[in-house]
Design goal:
Distance between the termini of chain B: 41 Å
Largest sheet of chain A: none
Protein name (chain B): Circularly permuted ATP-grasp type 2 domain-containing protein
Structural class of chain A: mainly alpha
Number of strands of chain B: 23
Shape of chain B: globular
Shape of chain A: globular
Number of helices of chain B: 14
Radius of gyration of chain B: 22 Å
Number of domains of chain B: 1
Order of helices and strands of chain A: HHHHHHHHHHHHHHHH
Largest sheet of chain B: 5 strands, mixed
Domain DUF403 (chain A): 1-310
Protein name (chain A): DUF403 domain-containing protein
Oligomer: heterodimer
Radius of gyration of chain A: 21 Å
InterPro entries (chain A): ATP-dep_Glu-Cys_Ligase-2, DUF403
Pfam families (chain A): Alpha-E
Number of strands of chain A: 0
Helix content of chain B: 25-40%
Distance between the termini of chain A: 20 Å
Chain lengths: 329, 479
């Protein structure tokens, strides 16, 4: 398919997935904020985390003096000046979809366009009474879009690039959500293993819809190590890093064409590390350090996918197979 | 030229639906009964539903001069415009005749130029025309077809008198509205269709695909076809994307294509892939910066060379503009007689050429009654509609004419037919025109109907969407 089309589809999917995960991060922060905490600067500390995770703390501080719940929520959810706000993500997803109207079907376009029209209608009153309702809405729209895509789309490269975007973004986002724990939680050592700790890990699990799965898999109290194992290494956990890389790797294998060797190699390497990884090694390295390294590798993989498939290569370099075909013609 | 009687008094204007006695015409009787039995607020509600559908589907167009990315809906009117099968058959015949002659003319002037040699059209009209493309001289095209897609603008003045206003042979747009209007009507008024046998138009994309396929070089067995758009901010972008997806072909921009060894390729995720037919919705000027406008970033360097080498088909061909220019328009009836030896079935609007002295003095003396247009203008821009203009507008326009008379033509204000239309005040007659789309490949194909445009302001004759016009579904009834 056209490189530019693949590029737009890849980014359309990434933006939708990013909107969903941003909503998940805000949701967990919101739920954590409902816990009693009267320590000094608790609100600032708590609400700085989602800014940090989304990488938009600087942009926020340029506009606001104080880090406080309502302003952070607004900035991350709705501010058009923030390129990674949920609002901007939905806009970018729609712009990408609009650029390739011909490559997606009417139902997909209607779903994405309706989300965009709806968020614009919601803006004035958004999140005032029920922040969680808004986050639920974002998640639902993302689920709906994914459902429409899987339920209606021809299984060709257009779908492959959409899936590639979805799972690469999700791997990145799950790693960031896990890192929330490092950024916000546990102001004091005596909380470890306490009620607050339990609640926070629980909230984190819920934010990636993994709470019930945890119960099923471990039938045990919630421990940080097991949460990390579930969300990093368990291949049967849909939003885990391992599950995401499974999808990325198999999708890269079935994309047509002769380019992409290096992208496949990188994906394979990353996948193997998750497939054979042990949680003990990860905690020994330090969860935050492990996740930081993982995010860098995902970023490099994204760049390689761009070079292999999405960039327009100006030089005329037919593959051996194409040369053969051209001679036949 | 004979004196033209000025616009008919309002009561004598032909209405598509009602006779002058106020009865619904035969082919409109079911509609009058079914549609107009609904209370006005129910109709208004349907109209709002239609708008919501269009908004949801993103059937919008961008308006030049407004903020980048501003999207507007073209107003959709729910009262269809209906043709009986016999009157349509005659129109269809006339359209095919006209387009056949226009294609023959384009082939001729880019080859032997017999029509000039025969003295039917003066040489300067063609060879000095800005839209005559000398790069096309002597280039042979598959099937000798230049205007693969023609959008002929027609108006009706009386029951049997149709006039051709314009032949759009470059990149005519609007066909997506023809299709979406039908889809919307079927969704909102299924009962209305149950009571009529309305000829379907949904197969237009297939007809277009067949036409493009037939237009590839005969040496290619399985041509790769693409639609080429200037990009997402073009006013007709929705249509470009729509047609590409309906035909199942790639929608490309200039930057997706490149030329190597006089062949055109597109960048794909699997590497370069050769392209054989380009349905291009990019104007000539922007197609190839090495031949035409050097500043254009929309085109593909080397495209013209590949085209002249016969390695790619462009639809429509380069240089068709010389045949749809408003001063060449005057000669279309003569072309029909010259190439086909037939009498024209559809009439031209009587036209004054302001480069002629007598015509100029007549027109200057009658400006308030006439419509004056720029020879190469389009989209309803830059024209003067005498009867609805202020004395100052007329005086200003007179100055423009005097500065360069040969750039203008004038026509009488035609009494365009009206069709009942839902407006704020209720159902009222509004002027309409019609743009059918004629496809030329190995044969000529025509979807029954076309795009009916309606001037929504009372008394207005300007139907262009860029000037606030709306559209209607157009029905051709089968016997």
């Amino acid at each position: 398919m056209l490189s530019r089309t693949a590029d737009h589809l890849f980014w359309m999917a990434r933006y939708i997935e990013r909107a969903e995960n941003t909503a998940r991060v805000l949701d967990i922060t919101h739920k954590t904020s409902l816990l009693p905490d009267d320590s000094e600067g608790a609100e600032t500390h708590l609400w700085y985390a989602p800014l940090n995770i989304a990488g938009c703390a600087e942009g926020y501080l340029a506009k606001h003096e104080l880090v406080e719940a309502e302003a952070v929520n607004r900035y991350i959810a709705l501010d058009p000046d923030n390129p990674s706000s949920i609002y901007s993500c939905l806009m970018s997803a729609r712009e990408n979809a609009r650029s390739v109207r011909g490559a997606i079907n009417a139902e997909m376009w209607e779903s994405i366009n309706a989300s965009w029209l709806e968020i614009n209608r919601m803006i004035p009153t958004l999140g005032k009474d029920c922040p969680t309702c808004f986050f639920e809405w974002v998640k639902e729209r993302s689920h709906l879009f994914r459902g429409v895509t899987l339920g209606t789309m021809l299984k060709d490269d257009a779908l492959n690039f959409i899936r590639l975007g979805t799972f690469l973004e999700r791997a990145d986002n799950t790693a960031r959500i896990l890192d929330v724990k490092y950024h916000i939680l546990l102001p004091s050592v005596h909380d470890v293993g306490g009620a607050a700790d339990y609640y926070q890990w629980g909230a984190l699990l819920k934010s990636v819809s993994a709470f019930d799965a945890y119960r099923k898999v471990y039938r045990d109290v919630i421990t940080p190590q097991k949460v990390a194992e579930l969300l990093i290494l368990r291949a049967d956990m849909p939003r885990s890093l391992h599950a995401c890389l499974n999808e990325v790797e198999t999708t890269l294998e079935i994309i047509n064409g002769f380019s992409g060797r290096e992208a496949r190699r990188r994906a394979g390497e990353l996948h193997a590390a998750l497939h054979f990884g042990r949680i003990e090694d990860i905690t020994q390295q330090g969860l935050h350090e492990y996740l930081t390294e993982f995010l860098e590798k995902v970023d490099l993989l994204g760049q390689e996918i761009h070079t292999s498939y999405l960039a327009r290569r100006e030089e005329f370099a037919p593959s051996p197979m194409q040369k053969m075909l051209m001679q036949v013609q | 030229m004979d004196e033209i009687t000025p616009a008919a008094p309002v009561t004598l204007i032909y209405d598509e639906m009602y006779t002058s006695e106020g009865a619904a015409r035969h082919h409109y009787q079911n509609i009058a009964r079914q549609l107009f039995s609904l209370p006005l607020d129910a109709l208004a509600q349907k109209q709002r539903e239609a708008e919501m559908l269009f908004r949801r589907l993103g059937i919008t167009f961008a308006v030049y001069g407004e903020a980048a990315g501003a999207e507007r809906l073209i107003p959709f009117d729910i009262v269809p415009r209906v043709f009986g099968s016999k009157e349509w058959a005659r129109l269809e015949q006339g359209l095919k005749q006209r387009v056949t002659a226009l294609n023959a003319f384009l082939h001729d002037i880019y080859h032997e130029q017999n029509i000039i040699k025969a003295g039917v059209i003066p040489a300067h009209q063609i060879l000095d025309n800005k839209l005559y493309c000398k790069e096309m001289q002597g280039v042979d095209l598959p099937n000798q077809i230049y205007a693969h897609i023609a959008g002929i603008d027609l108006v009706r003045v009386t029951e049997n008198d149709f006039y051709v206003l314009e032949d759009n042979l470059r990149t005519p747009s609007g066909v997506s509205y023809m299709l979406e209007n039908r889809r919307t009507m079927m969704r909102l008024f299924p009962d209305l269709f149950a009571g009529h046998s309305v000829a379907p138009v949904e197969h237009y994309p297939q007809m277009l695909y067949d036409t493009l396929r037939e237009s590839a070089s005969p040496y290619i067995s399985d041509p790769v076809i693409v639609v080429m758009t200037p990009g997402a901010y073009n006013s007709a972008y929705f249509e470009h994307a729509f047609l590409a997806s309906q035909m199942g072909v790639e929608l490309v921009e200039g930057k997706d294509l490149f030329v190597h060894d006089d062949k055109v390729y597109m960048h794909t995720t699997e590497g370069p892939q050769q392209v054989h037919v380009i349905y291009r919705r990019v104007d000539d000027d922007f197609l190839d910066p090495t031949v035409f406008n050097p500043n254009s970033a929309l085109g593909v360097p080397g495209l013209m060379k590949a085209y002249r080498a016969g390695n790619v088909t462009l639809a429509n061909a380069v240089g068709t503009g010389v045949a749809d220019d408003k001063s060449t328009y005057l000669y279309v009836p003569a072309m029909i007689e010259f190439y086909l030896g037939e009498k024209p079935i559809l009439s031209n609007v009587p036209t004054w050429r302001l480069e002629l002295k007598d015509d100029l003095s007549y027109v200057l003396a009658h400006l308030p009654e006439l419509v004056v247009k720029e020879v190469q203008g389009s989209g309803g821009y830059g024209m003067l509609v005498g009867p609805t203009s202020t004395p100052k507008e007329i005086a200003d326009y007179r100055d423009r004419i005097l500065a360069d008379p040969s750039n203008f033509i004038a026509q009488p204000t035609l009494a365009l037919s009206t069709c009942p239309t839902l407006v704020e005040a209720g159902i009222a007659p509004r002027h309409v025109d019609l743009r059918p789309f004629v496809l030329s490949g190995k044969e000529i194909r025509l979807a029954p109907g076309g795009l009916t445009r309606v001037a929504l302001a009372e008394g207005s004759l300007i139907v262009n969407s860029s000037q606030g016009g709306g559209t209607k579904d157009t029905w051709v009834l089968e016997d």
